[in-house]
Amino acid sequence: xxxxxxxxxxxxxxxxxxxxxxxxxxxxxxxxxxxxxxxxxxxxxxxxxxxxxxxxxxxxxxxxxxxxxxxxxxxxxxxxxxxxxxxxxxxxxxxxxxxxxxxxxxxxxxxxxxxxxxxxxxxxxxxxxxxxxxxxxxxxxxxxxxxxxxxxxxxxxxxxxxxxxxxxxxxxxxxxxxxxxxxxxxxxxxxxxxxxxxxxxxxxxxxxxxxxxxxxxxxxxxxxxxxxxxxxxxxxxxxxxxxxxxxxxxxxxxxxxxxxxxxxxxxxxxxxxxxxxxxxxxxxxxxxxxxxxxxxxxxxxxxxxxxxxxxxxxxxxxxxxxxxxxxxxxxxxxxxxxxxxxxxxxxxxxxxxxxxxxxxxxxxxxxxxxxxxxxxxxxxxxxxxxxxxxxxxxxxxxxxxxxxxxxxxxxxxxxxxxxxxxxxxxxxxxxxxxxxxxxxxxxxxxxxxxxxxxxxxxxxxxxxxxxxxxxxxxxxxxx
Length: 479
Fold this sequence. Notes:
The protein is mainly alpha-helical and 479 residues long. It has one domain. The chain has 17 helices and 3 strands. Helix 6 packs parallel to helix 10 and helix 6 runs antiparallel to helix 11.
């Protein structure tokens, strides 16, 4: 076993020497390292700039809210506030869904708004193909480079006639294939180096959690190992390097482009989402069926009125210890918030059903499992976006209800005649609007990333078996 390993290492060394003597592989690898370094640097700079800008805007909005003059509390309900989604440190490595979902949410009473200002809506169509991030270059471009560098690793020996000589001298086909895989694996490791250094820098200087960063490094290492195995296996199965190149290019197109696209389209048909217009119409109809929050005399408030009078043991709303209009505002906001939460849960359930459909296609394309793993660990997947939206909605509800409570407690029914004229001191809404979003715990991320990691490991075992089978056919002299 030790002798076979030593021979495999010698073969790998000779293969690397052959690659260095050529012009194409060193030049391509140098350009790759430059591209990967630029991708990591620009992604980090863009993430840092965006995070600082969002933090600055959030601070400005907090100050603007607290600087509002003395006024009616319900005027502040309609004045509203903004919540900006903070960026996690690893979002620089893989922005995931962030470019498509938006990051700014306007919080106001009686409404639940969508997040706005997604980068895709403000950029050219080039962004829809992919951003120059470490995740994109490793998922899409790295396999292509491995194909061009390693497609002739074994087929070249057959074309040159040296394969028969090596096997006749007693060299095991398995050892030969292992040496070629080791050589291409060292190239893959070098290709992974810039991303690994970038992840280490994010942990050391950017405050990124260490375990998710390590998980990303290991996940992409396994993904590149998959391509090393399939490239060497196909090269061993094909008679000519040209044939191996064509087969591998077809596999790259299918695995990286076609299958993910087909999975997305099928998911959209199997779990369709209503359009924005349809959703708005449905919610508007349901809101119209609720009692008017601005009209305490609306007959649809009759049941609430009777419960309130009975709760405080009085017969007239004028005798209540609290301002009835404020209580009506609180009850109306509770009802509308329940409606918004229900529709939000339904929408996210459909989106998660679409994601489940896409995940099933990981049996055809390991790229889908890699993307899933990468976005989960980077904190940029659908669940991370849902955490932000639900956290912002909870904050919106608490903020609006705090203002409605001010109307109920700080104003009387007799003086609460006009939201335009009756006012209370501005000190009452100091600190109400502060929004703080907490990222998902590391343990939860790792748990959610495990199915994707398991899918990659299954692919690794399967392609390892393919390589062994290809080596066996090579040793038997089969075409």
